[in-house]
Recover the amino acids of this structure.
């Protein structure tokens, strides 16, 4: 095996690992998002849930930017229709997560929050805490979140169906 084939194989392993890590991180983000309305406003629990939601969002931003950089550096060609469909669904999810990670902090700043990265620090506020920013970014964040929440089951069903039709295990078809 030559060096370029070795590098391509390791890049594919890395992109697969990043895809699975992103799936876990998005799962954490969705879980904390479900806890937000259930936690009383102004409580310490609400503060913790908000901080975890924003911190996991920044982890997702880092992972999706790394994933797009690897995709740009070495685009994975579709080997068949099934892998092409799953690649396109994965890219749609990555774009949606990227948009959420951009709009989410804007919504937080518009609300007057500091956007934390766990206990390591906070992002500097880049937009003012005003009603219009909060509302527009909040609705945009919600709309993209509903898209992601709807696309995840579609991706799972497609992976199972295409896995059954191609004879591959469903987990081989996503996320790449």
């Amino acid at each position: 095996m030559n060096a370029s084939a070795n590098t391509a194989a390791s890049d594919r392993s890395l992109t697969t690992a990043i895809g699975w890590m992103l799936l876990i991180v998005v799962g954490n983000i969705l879980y904390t998002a479900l806890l937000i309305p259930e936690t009383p406003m102004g409580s310490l629990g609400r503060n913790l849930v908000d901080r975890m939601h924003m911190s996991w969002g920044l982890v997702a931003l880092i992972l999706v930017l790394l994933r797009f950089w690897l995709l740009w550096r070495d685009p994975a060609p579709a080997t068949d229709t099934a892998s092409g469909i799953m690649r396109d669904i994965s890219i749609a999810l990555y774009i949606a997560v990227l948009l959420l990670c951009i709009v989410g902090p804007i919504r937080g700043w518009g609300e007057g929050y500091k956007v934390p990265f766990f206990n390591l620090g906070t992002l500097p506020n880049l937009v003012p805490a005003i009603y219009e920013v909060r509302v527009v970014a909040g609705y945009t964040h919600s709309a993209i979140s509903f898209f992601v929440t709807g696309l995840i089951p579609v991706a799972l069903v497609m992976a199972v169906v295409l896995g059954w039709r191609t004879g591959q295990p469903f987990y081989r078809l996503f996320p790449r």
Notes: The longest strand covers residues 115-116. Residues 3 and 9 are 10 Å apart (CA to CA).
